[in-house]
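We both want to read C-alpha cells more fluently, so let's practise on a single case. Would you supply a protein for us yourself, any chain you care to pick? Would you write everything just below, so we can both look at the same thing?
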Amino acid sequence: MLDLPDMFEEDAIHQFIQGLQYEPHLQVFLKTPTTLKAAYEAAVECAKGIREPTPPHNNHQSHFQDRRSDSPTPMELDTIYNNRRGRCGSKRHPRTTQCFNCQGFGHVARQCPSPSRKKFKEPLKGTAWQV
C-alpha cells in the first residue's frame, strides 16, 4: 500500500505530506517523520483528532476567573496600535519612534501634525533638471 517504486523514501515522504490538507500537512510536517509509514500514521492520528475532538477535562478546578460576559466590553482606541510589535518581536516604544517628516519623537510621518515636506523640489515650468 505504501510502496512507491523508483522513488527514494525522502521523496515519497515529501510527496505524501504535500498532498495533505492544511492542518494534517502542518501536523505531520512538524513531526518530521523519517519513514513513509510514520508519516502515514501521523496523518491518520491527526485526522482522528480532527474528527473526534476530545471532551474537556473538568477534573481540575481552574485557578482563573471566567471574565467573559454577555455584553461587549469597551476597548481603548489606541490599544491595538500600542500593542503592535516591531521587527524581531520587540514592542515599539512611542518615545523612540521618530517621525521621518519633522524628526520629532512619539509619532510616525503619516500621523505627523506638521505639514508634509517635499523630498525633492520640483522644477519651475519651462526649466530642466540640472544634474
